[in-house]
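Appendix B. One record, verbatim.
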Amino acid sequence: MNMLLTSLDLLVIVFMVLASVSLLALSLMFLVRNPRIKKVCFYIVALLGIYMGYVGFRIGSGLFPVQTALGVLVAVAAIASIVLALTCKNNEKKFKIARLVAAGSLIVGFANAFMI
């Protein structure tokens, strides 16, 4: 039996992989006590937020100006969270704010790219 994957099948596979990686990185970022693992998960979440902003921008460009603007805002928020994390040396409160901003940008970007 031959199984060929169509473009829609591949999109569903990419969606499931992105959703599972995002959920795993988000939960580890807030639940793990090891600061090194927190930082690694933070950067994964922030990079996924930038990617989701890019996907929302590319999907909405041209016909959907609100979705395009939201994609740009998501990417800018994720970049701002990275900058905040890099500038707050040994300040746990600012790093927590950076983690919250990165998590919010990933969630909003994911909803913008795939749900809305």
